[in-house]
Amino acid sequence: PKVLVSDAMASAPARPADLLAALEQVRCMPYEKVVIRFEGDPFGGFRSEFCDVVDPLGSPPLNIEVGHHGRPLAIAHFAGDMARDMAAAGQPAMIDLLKEKLVSAFGSSAARAMTGGTTTTGGADPFIRDDYAYARAGHAAARDAMIAADLAPLYLAGEAFHTSLSATAHGAYLTGIETAHRAARAMGQEAVPPDPLWLPQAA
After folding, report:
1. pTM, rounded to two decimals
2. What is the DSSP letter of 90?
3. Are 64 and 75 in contact (CB under 8 A)?
4. Largest CA distance in the chain
5. Within its chain, how far is the Cα of 134 from the centroid?
6. Backbone angles phi, psi at 81, to 5 degrees
7. Residue 36 CB: number of other CB atoms within 10 A?
8. pLDDT (tens digit per residue) in 98-138
9. What's residue 37's pLDDT?
10. DSSP track, 139-190
11. Which of the residues in the chain have pLDDT under 50?
């Protein structure tokens, strides 16, 4: 939504005024993630889908997934102003903050077991411009208007365009499949029924 109301994408004819009005009520929240990979299990068997590391005398609390689904990963979630500020500070600063939080919670063995890290960069990408979409209070219908808009030959997909799975990767994936098939049919190409479980065949 944020890209559509910006100057990052031009279209002819211009986007309808009612669509632009709807898009003004569907905003995108800054949201970034940091992932650190580990060798072994520095968490002593601890697993949590949502773990808040709180420092009452220091930096704000940080939400972290620890060893979720048995993977040797810690994934931190940054939202709102914190996501914007940390993204501006850069990837090394984001990774360092997660390292600091993990060491404060699990001790120095966590630092010794770290083997690499990375971050998302959605806020800095001019064709993403933040991450999860939400409708402003009192404007839930704006999302439905945005989804229903006919912009052919422009076809849009993403978590913001799913009627019930917004803010999820699978919502983005499912709308991508559906939209790709709709665009193919509009171009006269044969398109088999969408299969959300499809995977490419190994070579």
Report:
1. 0.72
2. -
3. yes
4. 62
5. 12
6. -60, -35
7. 23
8. 999 999 888 999 999 999 999 988 877 777 776 788 888 99
9. 94
10. -HHHHHHHHH---TT----SGGG-SS-TTSHHHHHHHHHHHHHHHHHHTT--
11. none
